Amino acid sequence: MDIILIPGFWLDAASWGDVVPILEEAGHRPHPVTLPGLESVDADRREIGLRDHIDAVVRLVDTFAEPVVLVAHSGGGAVAHGVADARPDRVARVVYVDAGPLADGQAINDELPVVDGEIPLPEWQDFDDADLVDLDDDLRARFRARAVPEPVRVATDPLVLRDDRRYDVPVTVIACEFPSSTLVDFIAADAGFTRELARVREVAYIDLPTGHWPQFTKPVQLGQAIAAAVR
Question: What is the pTM of this model?
Fold first, then answer.
């Protein structure tokens, strides 16, 4: 299976480096992507918006003869859902890694601090403790060294969705910061951030207890979880 790996904020294709071999060993063809504006710290990202990220992945999806699996971490979840909306017949499954689908009109995060027209990786004290579980000092240093500022409009643009067939695309949620049972409880309580997920017709859950960046803290287990989701 061709698996497109979509990184979350501040990360490029190389952030999946320790996950890719696990997927290859399972017989899959992983395709990690670097989204527009995340090529380097020197890239011009001033005019790049959420739709540019979605369109970049749509173009990649269109290069495959058969439907693909999308794997999306964190803020990449909005990108994956936009792609499923644009190509519902070309996406076999979306796997959300500590993420989920946004609804039409929602933004990924319009509260992140903007510095000099872009969004750099915040200081660690600005994250919740749950985000940082298992992210030791060495991993934090490596993450910060590779981090690229996020385009402002990717975080703040409202997601535009048009095709209800996106709800027919099967979904797997890999729950990291809190267990999937908690997410199910949020859905049952009609929490706003789960309403789009609640409309998806087929949803499976895999628990992978760790912090918000399992591709760094538990890459082997993450690769195995993605392979299990694809099966």
Answer: 0.96
